[in-house]
Amino acid sequence: MRRAAASQRGFTMIEVMVALLLTAVAVMGILAVYLAEVRASSYTRHATEAAILAQDKLEQLRTQVATTSSGHDASINEQGASPGLYTRNWSVTLTSGYADIVVTMTWSEDGVAKQFVLRGRRNP
Q1: How high is the pLDDT of residue 2?
Q2: How many domains does the chain have?
Q3: Is the distance from CB of 115 to CB of 53 less than 8 angstroms?
Q4: What single DSSP character describes residue 106?
Q5: What is the side-by-side strand order in the sheet with 98-109?
Q6: Longest Cα pair distance anywhere in the chain, in angstroms?
Q7: Residues linked to residue 88 through DSSP beta bridges, in sequence order
């Protein structure tokens, strides 16, 4: 009888449980990397949209007659329409020889305030 029991091969319950534990740890690691990538991708998309909105406003202000002014657009989306994620502030300051233009974009990313500032100059 001992010979028959010794010839039977297979996995023990402990081996199966260790294999399941290692698989679960590996899957959790892969999910953590995936979630980090999704957050990074979202931030990159929002930062790019903010840069485009700031550039659009800077170009618009460069084509107007230079006067000291400021303003803001609250709650705009990636197309500059309402409602949206971004707040755009701008100011034009006249100095001797040129006008300073500053456009600031702000938005919230996972509860953290983010900001993008674009500066430019033009002849008055």
Answers
A1: 54
A2: 1
A3: no
A4: E
A5: 69-76, 86-95, 98-109, 112-122
A6: 104
A7: 73, 105
